[in-house]
């Protein structure tokens, strides 16, 4: 029997999970494609491994839970997770890093908590941090970018990804953040280079790093398109980027030889990817605009603190996971007033 409710309040939406995921995939493709273009076949192989592994682990978990495997696989959430995991990995990482990363993201980051919409931590960031702690060498081997290609053919790239062949030292090097963290005496001699030239290269995409850490402008355009489509709102990206900009500018003015400028912070590492595609995750971020502003600001502050004084060059993964853990607390104290009640939950007299 169909019953049509006539009393308010009721909320309905025509937007479906698969529609949201398709748009997120579409927004990620330009930056991902540019990363594959820069780093070559190995980047494509690794992306294929992570996505296929994510789909495999998703199917296994759904089968064990007795759910409708095909319908859930079609919603695109596992593909998005696989793509985000790939974009947080070094492009020349071995295949098993991609498999382990997808397994951590899907199993521990998602289905341990009950599946789609019930996870406490962002799956891709959980996988990134776990891999970084467990396999620091594989997760910090970066490839120098030469214009248009790395110079390795498809066979060499296949061997590096799947056969454990070593990368030549001639085509490896540290990222900007890693260079500052490990070679600080040189950084002091080249503050202008680090604060201007390197940031410009990262903005257009000519920067070593993970697949999702190359072209700032393409990630930014993808994020703005998601805003235009109404998939994400501005509260988290703007507050996250604004807090990093404020702190880095302040400390750079105090001592430019020890603290990078806002330009480099915004164009290095995974800041842009996190701001638009990871911190904005519906499930692991607060529900209210004010809560999202607090969440984004907290992420930005933690990223700057970890980068400046922590043991790791990059702090995005740790920052997101820490703020994910306090999201329930933010939602508890920052929540909209219930209709007919005061903000502390008491009924309104005469309401």
Q: How does this structure look, described?
A:
It is a single chain. The chain has 351 residues and is mainly alpha-helical. The chain starts with 16 loop residues before the first helix and ends in an 18-residue tail after the last helix. The protein has two domains: 16-173 and 208-231, no CATH class; 233-334, no CATH class. It is built from 16 helices and no strands.
Task: Summarize it.
By secondary structure, the protein is an all-alpha fold.
List keywords for this structure.
single chain, 351 residues, mainly alpha, 2 domains, 60% helix
- The quaternary structure here is single chain
Stretches with pLDDT under 50, minimum 5 residues: 170-174, 184-197
The helix tally amounts to 16
Mean pLDDT: 80
Number of strands: 0
How many structural domains are formed by the residues? 2
Coarse morphology: globular
Termini Cα gap: 34 Å
Give the helices and strands, then pairings.
Elements: H1 17-39, H2 41-65, H3 69-73, H4 77-87, H5 95-108, H6 123-134, H7 154-162, H8 176-182, H9 184-189, H10 191-204, H11 216-228, H12 235-254, H13 262-267, H14 271-278, H15 289-309, H16 316-333
